[in-house]
Structures are given as structure tokens and as C-alpha cells.
Design goal:
The structure holds two protein chains of two kinds. Chain A is mainly β. Chain A is built from one helix and 24 strands. The radius of gyration of chain A is 34 Å and the shape is elongated. Chain B has one domain: Immunoglobulin-like (Sandwich), CATH 2.60.40. Chain B is mostly beta strands. In chain B, the strands form three sheets. In chain B, strands 4, 7, 8, 10, 11 and 13 form a six-stranded antiparallel β-sheet that branches. Chain B has a three-stranded antiparallel β-sheet with strand order 12-9-14, with no helix packed on it. Chain B has a two-stranded antiparallel ribbon with strand order 5-6. The chains are: A mainly beta, B mainly beta. Strand 24 of chain A pairs antiparallel with strand 2 of chain B, so a sheet runs across the interface.
Chain lengths: 384, 203
């Protein structure tokens, strides 16, 4: 912040006098009338000058969205948003997910530039025209001189002009000062009847106040338009009580069944062996973690298929079950007719426990195979 | 140079992000992550003993299995706890034999041939009173006491218990204890045991 001193005392008629230099302000003998007129003119100019009220300008901050428009009506947008915070936020927009319940918080810094004032000003703000979908989109604010990377430092921006939110608190800031605050846009991850996708907009009104007497100086608005809410889907996998699941190379995840054999002897830790016709099935539980946002449906469908089969498919096969002991069914090899794991009952944020089986044939002779092999399963989360 | 390096790093970062992008998507209703399933198949072999129609074959302590014949005597007078008894050919001179049937189930997987495997056995730890007690066996239902012959005590020359055994197919065999006549100043009475080691060899 910078502060350049500006004379401000509209209630007083006194004027600082300059000594010497032949200034027009210097009374001269015999020029009393002219001096009085000049003094009155100066006082009148001071009373009329905008320096008394000051001007609040909203400006683009480094790392923030572009602030457009002109005093007193400014504009901006955080662009496309979603309730899971997926995808890359628009330029100048950051994302906070930690500590945020029921959605995410998109944030952007902005600059409040105050000019033409002779004493400090505070600034408050409130939502003067709220979103049409206030349950999905909620504005938050983080005041100046605050680390605005934590959700705990944000508060809901007031929707009341009589109880606005403080943006620049006392003791305020002085003339020609640039102060950076941060706006937050909470996007709920609602599904079902309250879900919303599409464009919405909001207007924030900022008001400057003299610290000395609380008088209102300047009022400006910032319209965030459009804010576009999009759907979002995410499907994660995680280990349950069985095999560990790691990040894949060339795939999203990887599971290693380790050393197996057609007799089910000495199964690796985390695997359960079930004897079946022609061999055994090594089985493990695992978790599918679907999350989705802004859908009218509250449930999803989870499917899978073998997108790349084992090279030795007569010995090895992937199977699925709803219990660790089976019964096991072969997982489809076709993307068009995938094996349905669950449909119509799993909701967003609810882990679905499934069981993955690896059939190992006990064949001997020409069809026997010993060695390493791998397959790739592709899972599909679909929200209707 | 720094600019080029920055562009390269940015490109690599974008590529790595795209590689992991299958798990999530905005403005979509479907997402399709992938998982690689890795496995190493090994060949395997297994030999299981189980109860036939007579004595119980149970889990052992210090061994894999155990069979208990209970009280026996050289005249075959004692009623077998399980199994059956062949009285001596010449009581008081030739031995009696207490025996039982049992099942051997070979299994093997990932072997390069389907030809039958072999099963052998030998007494790896003999009775402490070998002049009185001996392990005998037969690969077929014994027709007489002479059908049960002594099991080898040499690991190098074990007794053949089965040839061309088929994976997954149980075979019935017979094992027993021969109790010899003993009359001396310090005859042996009391408990004793022996350990038999079986070997399945896949083709």
C-alpha cells in the first residue's frame, strides 16, 4: 500500500499560507478584497473537489481474474466451475478443497485502489444481487492482509446492506493505496432435485467509509457474470482389506496379484483362494469411490470390462463377485457389453466394495503357462 | 535456454496430468479409469493325505498328518481302535499286523506334461523299538497278512506308492504296523511312533 498525503478538511475555510515567492495567495497591501474573493474561491473548490469523497477502483490483481468495466460498475468472471473442483480453473482462479464441506471454493484475488482521500478509509461489501441458485453458488470473502489460501480465513459475503462484510478493516487505508483482498465462490456438489448446471450471476456492492466519522464516501459494484456451473464426475479406486492399489504406469492404477498357481497354494497376503472347476480364483476386495456433482440423478452405474486381456487367456482370466467367496463371473471382454458392478444404488461419495477375482487354471501339458502376465481393466462410472 | 526448459517442463507436466485424467472429468457424465492387473504364474504341486474308510487321518504335530492305531499286540488279540488286524500266521511266532486304508490325492499345475506323476514313501523316523514294531504298506487292498510289506527306511530307495498318478485323482493305499513277537528279560510295552515321508514327483 502507498499513501500520499492529500489535504482534506471540507468543513474548514482555513488555508495553508505559503511564505514568499510572489504567490497569488500572498495578500498584498491594498488588495484585501481581492484576497478575500480568492480565498472564497479556493474554499469553494475544496468543497467541490472529489478528493473529499475519494474514489474506490477495483482492479485486476496479480494472479487474479481480469477486472473490467469502469467506475462505479466493474465486471469479472471466475468462468466454468463445478462442485468437485475438477479440471483446470480459469486463469486467475485458484481452488480450495481442504476443509470445505459439501463442495469446493474457487478463489481469486482483486485489488481495491482508493484515491482522492485525505484520511483513511475502510471498505465493506455485500451481495446486492444474489445468484439465482443461492444454494449452489455462495460468495465468500477474505479480507486484506490475510493469507487467503485456507478456507478458514474466508467468510460468507453478507447479503445485507445493513450488515455488510468488512473487506478493509479499521484503521483503514490511505490515499492512493492498493489493497488486495480475495473473493471466494463456493460451488456445492449437490445432486438430485437441488442440482443446477448453467450460467448464473451475482453483483457485489463495495462501500468506502471514512474512519474518522464512518461517513460513506464511494459505492461501486462488481458483477460476476457469467459463472457457469458444470457437471463433474470422478471415479477413484482404493484398497480395502485385500491387495494394495498403487498408481499405475500407463494406467491410472495397478494391482499386483504376485505369485499365483493353479492349486491356490500359499496365496499372497491379502488374497483369498476359492477352488473352482479347472483351477482356483484368487480374490481381493477393493473400493470404488464414485463422486459426481450437479446431476439430477443421485445414483450412478459402475461397470468394468477387460480392455486388454492376458496374453495367456486360457490360463488366466479376470472375474468379478459380490462376495469374497464368490460366485465369480467372468468380466466382459467387450466395451459394448460391460460387466455391471452396481447400478441405481450407489450414491456420490459412497464407497462401493467390490471383489476382483483372478482365475488361474490348473492345466498341465501343452496349455500350461508359467511366468508374468498382465491385463488391463477399464471401469466406467456413468451418471444418468 | 531457461524459457525452453520451462516450456519443456510445462509440456511434461501437462502430459503427466493427461495420463492421469481418466479418473475425473468436468462437464461430463462418464469417466473411465483403468487398472493394470499384474500376476506371475508359477507351477505348483501338492500331495494330500486323507481318511479312507478306516482310521482317521488328522493334522499332525510336527508332521503334516497323523494316524493313531491305539493299543496293539503281537498276537492280534487287542481290538483295533480303528482299521483292522491280521492275526499272526503262527501265533506266538510270526507277527500280527494292524492296518488301515487312506487316501493320497496328488495335484499339480503348470507342469509341462500331463503324464502321470509318481508317489514314493519311506520311514524317515523309525520306531524306537524297531525289533518289535515296523511300518508296512500295500498299494492294493491286502488279501492276506503277507500282502503288507515293510516300507523302506532309506530315502535313497523309497517304496513306490503310486505311478502315473493323475492330478486331482485320489488313490487308496494301505499302511499298517507290524507287531513282532518278543519274549525276553525286558520286553517292550508302551507307546511308540514312526514318521513316514511321502514324495510326489510331477512328470
Amino acid at each position: 500500500m502507498s499513501d500520499r498525503s492529500v489535504s482534506e478538511n471540507p468543513g474548514s475555510a482555513s488555508v495553508r499560507q505559503h511564505n514568499g515567492g510572489g504567490s497569488g495567495l500572498q495578500p498584498r497591501v491594498g488588495g484585501t478584497t481581492a484576497f478575500r474573493r480568492l480565498s472564497l474561491l479556493i474554499v469553494a473548490m475544496l468543497l467541490a473537489t472529489p478528493l473529499a469523497g475519494g474514489t474506490l477502483t477495483l482492479e485486476t490483481a496479480a494472479g487474479g481474474i481480469a477486472i473490467g468495466g469502469a467506475h462505479p460498475s466493474f465486471t469479472g468472471t471466475l468462468g466454468n466451475v463445478n462442485g468437485l473442483g475438477l479440471g483446470t480453473p480459469s486463469a486467475g482462479v485458484s481452488l480450495i478443497t481442504a476443509g470445505v464441506t459439501g463442495g469446493v471454493l474457487y478463489t481469486t484475488p482483486y485489488v481495491l485502489y482508493i484515491s482522492g482521500v485525505g484520511s483513511n478509509r475502510t471498505v465493506t461489501a455485500y451481495v446486492s444481487a444474489n445468484f439465482a441458485h443461492p444454494a449452489v453458488l455462495i460468495l465468500y470473502s477474505c479480507p486484506i492482509n490475510t493469507t487467503c489460501t485456507s478456507f478458514s480465513n474466508f467468510s460468507v459475503l453478507s447479503t445485507s446492506s445493513t450488515a455488510p462484510t468488512t473487506i478493509i478493516p479499521s484503521p483503514g487505508v490511505g490515499n492512493n493505496s492498493s489493497s488486495t483482498a480475495t473473493l471466494g465462490l463456493f460451488v456445492a456438489n449437490t445432486n438430485g432435485g437441488g442440482a443446477f448446471t448453467g450460467s448464473d450471476h451475482v453483483t457485489i456492492t463495495f462501500v468506502t467509509h471514512r474512519v474518522s466519522n464512518g461517513a460513506t464516501d464511494d459505492t461501486v459494484t462488481l458483477a460476476l457474470n457469467p459463472e457457469t456451473v458444470q457437471t463433474a464426475v470422478q471415479l477413484l479406486m482404493a484398497a480395502s482389506t485385500g491387495l494394495s492399489i498403487t498408481a499405475g504406469s500407463g494406467t491410472d492404477y495397478a494391482m499386483n496379484f504376485g505369485n499365483v498357481n493353479g492349486l491356490g497354494i500359499a496365496p499372497p497376503t491379502g488374497l483369498t483362494v476359492t477352488s473352482v472347476s479347472g483351477g482356483v480364483v484368487y480374490a481381493t476386495p477393493y473400493l470404488l469411490e464414485p463422486t459426481f456433482s450437479s446431476f439430477t440423478s443421485t445414483t450412478c452405474t459402475l461397470k468394468t470390462y477387460v480392455s486388454t486381456n492376458f496374453a495367456n487367456s486360457s490360463v488366466l482370466a479376470m472375474e468379478a463377485a459380490s462376495a469374497i467367496g464368490g460366485p465369480f463371473t467372468a468380466i466382459s471382454l467387450s466395451s459394448a457389453t460391460q460387466t455391471v458392478l452396481t447400478t441405481g444404488s450407489t450414491t456420490s461419495g459412497t464407497n462401493f466394495t467390490s471383489y476382483l477375482g483372478l482365475f488361474v487354471s490348473n492345466v498341465n501339458g501343452a496349455g500350461a503357462f508359467n511366468g508374468a502376465d498382465s491385463a488391463i481393466l477399464t471401469y466406467t462410472l456413468t451418471v444418468p | 535456454m531457461k524459457l525452453r526448459l520451462g516450456i519443456l517442463l510445462a509440456a511434461l507436466l501437462m502430459f503427466s496430468m493427461q495420463a492421469l485424467a481418466n479418473t475425473q472429468a468436468p462437464n461430463a457424465s462418464t469417466v473411465s479409469p483403468t487398472v493394470k492387473i499384474s500376476v506371475t504364474v508359477q507351477k505348483a504341486i501338492q500331495l494330500t493325505l486323507s481318511t479312507g474308510s478306516m482310521c482317521t487321518v488328522s493334522g499332525g504335530s510336527g508332521t503334516d498328518y497323523q494316524i493313531t492305531f491305539g493299543t496293539v499286540d503281537a498276537l492280534g488279540i487287542s481290538t483295533p481302535t480303528c482299521g483292522t488286524v491280521y492275526a499272526p500266521t503262527t501265533p506266538g511266532v510270526s507277527p500280527a499286523v494292524y492296518y488301515t486304508d487312506y487316501k493320497l490325492t496328488p495335484a499339480f499345475s503348470g507342469q509341462t506334461t500331463t503324464a502321470g506323476g509318481t508317489v514314493t514313501a519311506y520311514v524317515s523316523s523309525n520306531f524306537t523299538n524297531p525289533t518289535v514294531l515296523a511300518v508296512v504298506q500295500s498299494n492294493t487292498a491286502p488279501a492276506s497278512i503277507s500282502s503288507l510289506t515293510a516300507m523302506s527306511t532309506a530315502p535313497a530307495t523309497p517304496t513306490s506308492v503310486g505311478t502315473t498318478v493323475v492330478s486331482g485323482t485320489a488313490i487308496t493305499r494301505y499302511v499298517g504296523v507290524q507287531v513282532s513277537v518278543q519274549n525276553s528279560a525286558a520286553p517292550f510295552t508302551g507307546g511308540d511312533s514312526a514318521v513316514v515321508t511321502y514324495t510326489l514327483t510331477a512328470p
